[in-house]
Design brief:
It is a single chain. The chain is about 35% helix and about 25% strand. The chain is α+β, with helices and mostly antiparallel strands and about 130 residues long. It has a single domain, classed as Transposase IS200-like (Alpha-Beta Plaits, 2-Layer Sandwich). The longest helix has 19 residues. It is elongated. The protein starts with a helix and ends in a 6-residue tail after the last strand.
Length: about 130
């Protein structure tokens, strides 16, 4: 386990000049809210999101989904914009799902797996 992940697991990301705890709740929906995912594909998505998070120096805390959407809870560093994270997560997961499930492009009217929109909400519980 990298030092980065140990810092995140302690609850706070400790850097030289800052201590942060940034957690975001993301929701991605399929294009046209198509019912595409089954339990097996949700697991494939979990692995794809986990792999993408490692490359982005994030920590996938939780992930679950239904046939037409997924929820992710991610701890991320302050240098990473949420929009960049979302773009990367959607790209990596879409590519992985299409490689592992060749029937997906035929089911969908559009070439896109994900809707362009997303929901993002801070999930931190700060007290003063």
């Amino acid at each position: 386990m990298s030092a980065h992940h140990k810092e995140l697991l302690s609850g706070y990301l400790r850097k030289r000049h800052s201590v942060t705890k940034l957690v975001v709740h993301l929701v991605f929906t399929t294009k046209y809210r198509r019912n595409l995912f089954d339990g097996y594909m949700i697991q494939q998505l979990r692995e794809a999101f986990g792999s993408a998070c490692e490359k982005l120096e994030c920590d996938l805390l939780e992930m679950d989904g239904e046939s037409d959407h997924v929820h992710l809870l991610i701890a991320y560093p302050p240098k990473l914009a949420i929009s960049v994270m979302v773009n990367n997560l959607k790209s990596v997961s879409s590519r992985r799902i299409r490689i592992l499930n060749t029937h997906i492009p035929r089911q969908s009217k559009s070439a896109a797996l994900w809707s362009r929109s997303y929901f993002a909400c801070s999930a931190g519980g700060a007290t003063i």
